[in-house]
Amino acid sequence: MGRARRARRIAQQAAYGGGVGVAGLGALSLLGYGLLRAEARMARRIVGQPFEGAPEDSGTYGSGHGTPVQFLVLGDSTGVGMGADHPHQTIGATIASGVAAFSGRPVELTNVAVIGAESSDLDEQVERGLAAVPEPDVAVIMVGANDVTHRIDTSVAVRHLEMAVRSLREAGAEVVVGTCPDLGAIEPVPQPLRLLARRWSRDLAAAQTVAVVEAGGRAVSVGDLLSEAFSAEPTVMFSKDRFHPSPAGYARVAAALLPTVSAALDLFGERSAPAEPNLRRGESVGPVAKAAMRAVTQPGTEVAPAEVDGQARGAQGRWAVLLHRIRPAVPLSAPAGLGEPVTPEGAADAAPVPGPVAQEADEPTADDTPAEDPVAR
């Protein structure tokens, strides 16, 4: 079964109840499961936990005039900023500073994320967040890694995330979700656990994307955003525990989220003149499940609700737009003989192609075990 169909099925079962196996473990034999448990224990010994906490980043950012933008951050240790050295180095603080600069208004950040949180913990975080900020302008959620490592049923995790997004939307907030990171990018995790962790992470991220868009939010693929830089310089993008991002890693994740948060707040006037998908950059409008499947392999990709001919839904479910608001920050190495490395695309991009893209065919089911997944990274 292709990832697009799996994502759609998980989201449907999340809406109506029922399970799809504990993080995909149902397909494993008892022998294989025992091997993975042994490897997980080994990984826990290698990946230390030297941090006692994280910097407190709640507060006011920017010195502009006007009513402060009310900004909520929810989620797990990534949302908290575990591994950062200073409050201004967290994802929430970096986004808040960017929004303050773009909007010319101060940003009041309220961070209710919790170290070690799973998606089920979002219920309590939403309650606390809305008690502190009854009418948030925007909320960012970072969650999913602990659902994978704790082997939480994917449909259960997705159900809690969707409920959190709906509650925040009902409170008037724009919602941006950084989907589950690719745990296959964590070097200390041995094979074959790392390959399975990649598949589970991507399956959860795709299902999260479907649920978030169905609930009226925007999803941004975090994926293996840090893996290339980590492989080249493991001390740069990851902190000393070799699991959580470093300040540089958090800055890169925040850079992927900031354009979507800014668009959600309409800082660039997109509500009156929506951005059209650019075919040359691989952007498109299509069924949300297919957009979700594509996004998980392209870090930094935004998937948001869309309409086609005035309709929010088609034969295969909710319409969604897939956008690449940022280009890769690290140049990609070109194979020998093919010229210079690929560099980030900028203002020289071709003009956007107007109108939605026709519905795409299913991607090959070989995506279940992606060809690009290396045996060792």
UniProtKB/TrEMBL annotation:
What keywords appear on the UniProt entry?
Hydrolase, Membrane, Transmembrane, Transmembrane helix
- Record-level Gene Ontology MF annotations: hydrolase activity
* Chain segments carrying region Disordered: 332-377
Compositional bias of type Acidic residues: which residue ranges?
A: 360-371
Q: Where is the SGNH hydrolase-type esterase domain?
A: 73-252
Any transmembrane segments, and where?
A: 15-36
Database matches in Gene3D superfamilies: SGNH hydrolase (3.40.50.1110)
**Superkingdom of the organism of origin:** Bacteria
- InterPro entries reported for this sequence: Ester_Hydrolysis_Enzymes, SGNH_hydro, SGNH_hydro_sf
Q: Where is the composition biased (Low complexity)?
A: 344-358
The protein's name is SGNH/GDSL hydrolase family protein
